[in-house]
Amino acid sequence: MKENIYTIPVTDGFNQNSECPFCSMYNKLDNDAIEYMLGPSYMEDDIREETDKIGFCKEHYHKMYTKQNRLGLSLMAQTHIHKINSAIKKYSSEYIKNRPEPGLISSTKGIFSKKNNSAEKIPEFLNNITNSCYICNKINTTFERYINTFFYLWKKDNSIKETVKNCKGFCIKHYSMLLTEGLKELKTKEFNNFFDIISEVEINNIKRIEDEIDLFINKFDYRYKDVPLGTSKDALERTITKLSSQFMEEEDD
Ligand SMILES: [Zn+2]
Ligand SMILES: [Zn+2]
């Protein structure tokens, strides 16, 4: 396979030999994005303007918090929360200025339409923030490009087919994603071949995981005390990866 700047992250993901190459790619993007966020980037005006506007999700606040750059995270939180409070103050004073008197609601219905109801602007503004994340957005944009690259390789380069046949399958989310994207990206004949390859890999590797977790469970029974655990020693962690698209690791904090 000819490597270039676009294909390297995809082939690296497969080279990790994990329970899902796409989770490996995503995980690398996630770690890099957190490092980047807590590096000098938060002092750059254009980035800070964006993080002030959209903030981060619960998971990424937590991940950044465990990285111990308390000053960096505090600075981002400070300007973000300041921006939020300014908006709440603005919308609430607009509402207070224009709100109808009790009892007058029906007669003022026309002028007091939904559109200029500042009380509704507050949840609208806050819902946008609680449902968005600067880091998730950044990762997802690049991850979409990796998926395109994967299908580009699938169409152009037969060695990716061998790589897929020899991988450990995919987590259920990314196996499902491959089928959905495959239907969009590939012509019927190409898709049928793709379907046969990835489904065989997936079914065989889920069977392998089933056998590994069976042995892991059996080891709790004294009758199995002499049976070697072998690869089943981290069967639970790898089963969780297959099921929930995350690598189980110890937390830093
Ligand atoms: Zn995955
Ligand atoms: Zn996020």
Query: How many β-strand runs?
Result: 0
Task: Please state roughly what percent of the residues sit in beta strands, choosing from under 5%, 5-15%, 15-25%, 25-35%, 35-45% or over 45%.
Answer: under 5%
Helix-strand category: mainly alpha
Structure annotation, total helices: 11
First-last Cα distance: 40 Å
Bound molecules: zinc ion
The profile of the biggest β sheet is: none
Low-confidence stretches: none
Residue-averaged pLDDT: 91
Q: Please give the domain count.
A: 2
The radius of gyration over CA amounts to 25 Å
Q: What is the general shape?
A: globular
What is the H/E order?
HHHHHHHHHHH
Summarize the amount of helix as a percent range. Answer: 55-70%
Describe the structure.
This protein is mainly alpha-helical and 253 residues long. The chain folds into two domains: 21-135, no CATH class; 140-244, no CATH class. Helix content is 68%, strand content 0%. The chain has eleven helices and no strands. It has helices at 8-15, 21-38, 45-54, 58-66, 70-98, 118-130, 134-156, 159-165, 172-185, 188-218, 235-244. The radius of gyration is 25 Å and the shape is globular. The mean pLDDT is 91. Residues 56-57, 59-60, 133, 135-136 line the site of one zinc ion.
